[in-house]
Design goal:
single chain; 211 residues; alpha/beta; eight-stranded mixed sheet; two-stranded antiparallel sheet; 6 helices; 27% helix; binds NADP nicotinamide-adenine-dinucleotide phosphate
Length: 211
């Protein structure tokens, strides 16, 4: 576990695709970090729902100069939206989506695998921030507990996401490469099962003990 005091956050321009619960929470947390700027990529930048967000642009407009692009849109929208973002090999992608009560579009093994299939092959990506309710994404903690945040994906992107997640407050743990996308999404399914089927509600997260 990193000491928050020594987390070195990279200088980054971030585009958050989707200004819903997850996009707003993650964008709101990231923009508070030194060196990080956030632009929200939305369908209609003139929509008054976005008036309180600092920087807002179209999907390709927001992504054009971004170092890091976060996908925070419904699973069903991913196949149509990702190819329109104009992403290139110098950029990194975080996939925060889950297929909830629906199959992964296109029959892929995970949303991460679907996203990977839609990106140019030289774009590096990771799966993160999909395993906790949106209301705890900007802080990464409940009380004094740092919340366990599993991350999987390409080394270059994991190296960027890890300090960002730690700086937000999470106990961020790399699980492996793209082969671990489905495992990260299974962890989200566990959270969803406990929250909505077992009746725990949304106000909980997982923390590691004894590591
Ligand atoms: N809610 C949670 O607690 C939570 C936690 C972890 C992961 N997730 C996952 O994160 C993703 C986003 O969840 P959310 O709760 O933030 O969703 P949301 O609030 O329902 O929607 C996110 C945003 O996606 C954009 N959007 C919706 N339909 C679209 C379409 N057809 N094409 C393009 N953009 C569209 C909208 O932004 P604009 O209208 O502004 O463009 C919307 O505000 C989902 O995959 C979800 O499973 C959710």
């Amino acid at each position: 576990m990193m000491d928050l005091a020594v987390v070195d956050v990279p200088v980054l321009d971030v585009a958050v695709v989707g200004a819903g619960a997850v996009g707003r929470a993650l964008g709101g947390g990231l923009v508070r970090l030194d060196g990080v700027t956030v632009t929200y990529a939305v369908r209609d930048p003139d929509d008054e729902r976005h008036a309180d967000l600092g920087s807002v642009a179209t999907h390709p407009g927001a992504c054009a100069d971004a170092d890091l692009v976060v996908l925070a849109i419904p699973a069903a929208a991913v196949p149509d939206v990702v190819p329109t973002l104009g992403l290139e090999g110098r950029q990194h992608v975080i996939d925060a989506t889950n297929a909830v009560r629906m199959p992964v579009p296109g029959g892929h093994a995970s949303m991460g695998a679907l996203v990977a299939s839609l990106l140019p092959s030289d774009v590096s990506m990771a799966k993160a921030f999909n395993t906790i309710g949106a209301e705890h994404i900007d802080g990464g903690r409940i009380g004094d507990d740092r919340l366990f945040l599993p991350i999987a994906g390409d080394d270059g992107t994991v190296e960027i996401v890890l300090p960002l997640a730690e700086a937000l407050g999470f106990d961020a743990v790399p699980l492996g490469g793209r082969e671990a996308f489905a495992l990260v999404e299974d962890h989200a399914r566990l959270w969803i099962q406990l929250a909505f089927v077992c009746g725990w509600g949304r106000d909980f997260g997982f923390a590691v003990r004894g590591r």
